[in-house]
Amino acid sequence: MQYIYLKCVFLVLFIFGALIAGSAVSSNEYLKREHSLIRPFQGVGVNIQYWDFLGHTMITNNYIRLTPDLQSKSGALWNYSPVLSRNWEVQVTFRVHGKGTELFGDGLAIWYAKERMQPGPVFGSKDHFLGLVVILDTYSNHNGPHNHQHPYLSAMVNNGTWSYDHDRDGTHTQLCEGCEVRFRNVDFDTHVSIRYENDILSVATDLENKGEWKSCFVVNGVELPTGYYFGMSATTGDLSDNHDILAFRFYDLDSNVTPDDILARSKIIPNAKSYEPPRAHKDDPKPSMSNAKIFFILLFGMLIVIAVAIFAISYFKEKNNRKRFY
Ligand SMILES: [Ca+2]
Q1: Is residue 236 part of a domain?
Q2: How far, in Å, from the CA of 140 to the mean position of ligand 1?
Q3: Which of 45, 60, 74, 224 is the most exposed place for a label (fewest CB within 10 A)?
Q4: Phi first, then psi: what are they for 153, rounded to 5°?
Q5: Centroid of ligand 1 to alpha carbon of 242 (angstroms)
Q6: Could you list the residue range(s) of the whole structural domain that residue 60 is in?
């Protein structure tokens, strides 16, 4: 009796153990360490495994600070393993914070690009890039009215020929309408997920500490090559913020993708079918007439009408008077 009881206990323990092992495998199955960045960051010296950094980037155990909350700083982090997956998802945990309450900037960008470690004007990285960028733009450079508030999340796919237009906050080259995002100065971690599967790009955020993704946008027909690199960069100008990266997790979503597919895919040029062709940079239209101007024009017009009326009345009156004399 006791033997059967023990056997049952062992069986239950075995099944329980197998379930735990199974779930551990399934949750780690697709995480690729060579494209990920997981705490603690400080290993031997100042090296971070699989990643290079440049500019004012500062590494601590718990976070990587791309820029401090000081003017004119710029930093970047680039993975040095080319991505050999056709379908993937990355989840970036970040924190943007600073002393500014009304004015802060400039923002943070997450890259999947052909060239790595290239400093430049687009949130600390190269313009005219080949690949994808997802931008968390904290400062509205645009003087005229936007139809959205900042911070604003948007994406751009570039074949190397287009320029990111800061004066328009990239709205003329964005992939589609983005979304307003509030991630600054919160006392919990904030996350963005970029999923690229079967040429569909989906971006979602978790900015409210709820542990759930909220969709920002989904776009079909996005063609990105294999063999590009992931990176993150940030910059400050007159305005500043701390731009901190806390984690970068890469999940391989490939199933039934052959090495030939991966190779063929490495030769394509980044392209997005739904793309609106970028509009030429035009200056804002001249401000329309002020209310005061319109009032004076109307007043002037009315005075002319009144003057004409008075003249006409007196003219006809005189004509009538003259008639009576004859
Ligand atoms: Ca901006």
Answers
A1: yes
A2: 4
A3: 45
A4: -105, 125
A5: 16
A6: 31-272
Ligand 1 center from residue 169 Cα (angstroms): 5
pLDDT at 12: 47
Dist. CA 89 → ligand 1 center (Å): 26
Please report the pLDDT score of residue 207 as a whole number.
98
Run means of pLDDT, 10 residues per run, the chain, 326 residues:
51 47 48 95 77 96 96 98 97 98 96 98 98 97 82 97 94 94 97 98 97 97 98 98 98 95 97 66 54 74 84 72 49
Single-letter amino acid code for the residue at 118: Q
Concatenating the DSSP letter of every residue in 100-135 gives: -SS----EEEEEEESS-S-EETBTEE-SS-EEEEEE
Per-residue pLDDT, 21: 43
**240 and 73 Cβ atoms separated by less than 8 Å:** yes
- What is the whole-number distance in angstroms between the Cα of residue 96 and the centre of ligand 1? 15
The per-residue pLDDT for 283 is 55
Q: Minimal CA–CA distance to 106: which of 74, 143, 149? A: 74
Q: How many angstroms separate the alpha carbon of residue 168 from the centre of ligand 1?
A: 8
20 and 44 part of one domain: no
CA of 141 to the centre of ligand 1 (A): 5
Please tell me the distance between residue 273's alpha carbon and the centre of ligand 1 in angstroms: 25
Radius of gyration of the chain (CA): 31
* CATH number for position 116: 2.60.120.200
Integer angstrom CA distances of residue 20 from 5, 23, 28, 252: 23, 5, 12, 22
Calculate how far, in angstroms, residue 167's C-alpha sits from the geometric centre of ligand 1: 7
Regarding whether 189 and 46 lie in a shared domain, the answer is yes
Distance 174 CA to ligand 1 centre (A): 13
* Domain co-membership, 9 together with 92: no
Cα(239) to centroid(ligand 1), Å: 11
Separation of CA 4 and ligand 1 centre (Å): 70
